[in-house]
Specification:
With about 130 residues, the chain is mainly α. The protein has five helices and no strands.
């Protein structure tokens, strides 16, 4: 299996593996329960929102493309994997500001949408 085939046809698996790898080694930060009220969640980490909302959107989107057997754009897929990795690694570092992570998140979302739309439009050019 070449790098082109891996990135163009197996983005679903690569995204799931990246999510599991970062989740295992980065750990999910403790969001905790507010002790005074006992039911309010203290969301202090953007990583919680990234893992709960953005990464599942990417996994579901690439899963749909995998089920339909559409290939993704090689360069966009590599760029998207790098963006996801950078976002998760930089957000794990507490000393960095959240604006960098938010900007990387938005760029990652735009890259995903571009890759998804490109794959749908070029559905006839499947990798064989």
């Amino acid at each position: 299996m070449t790098l082109n085939e891996l990135v163009q046809r197996r983005m679903f698996l690569l995204t799931v593996l990246l999510f599991v790898f970062i989740g295992y080694f980065g750990g999910i930060s403790n969001v905790g329960i507010n002790k005074t009220v006992g039911w309010a969640w203290d969301i202090t980490s953007w990583l919680y929102f990234i893992r709960v909302y953005f990464i599942p959107i990417f996994i579901i989107g690439y899963g749909i493309l995998a089920l339909m057997k559409y290939s993704t754009h090689r360069n966009l897929s590599i760029f998207h994997l790098i963006l996801i990795t950078l976002t998760l690694i930089l957000d794990d570092m507490v000393s960095l500001t959240l604006s960098i992570v938010i900007i990387l998140n938005l760029i990652s979302l735009l890259t995903f949408l571009t890759n998804f739309i490109w794959s749908i439009r070029n559905r006839n050019s499947k990798l064989k």
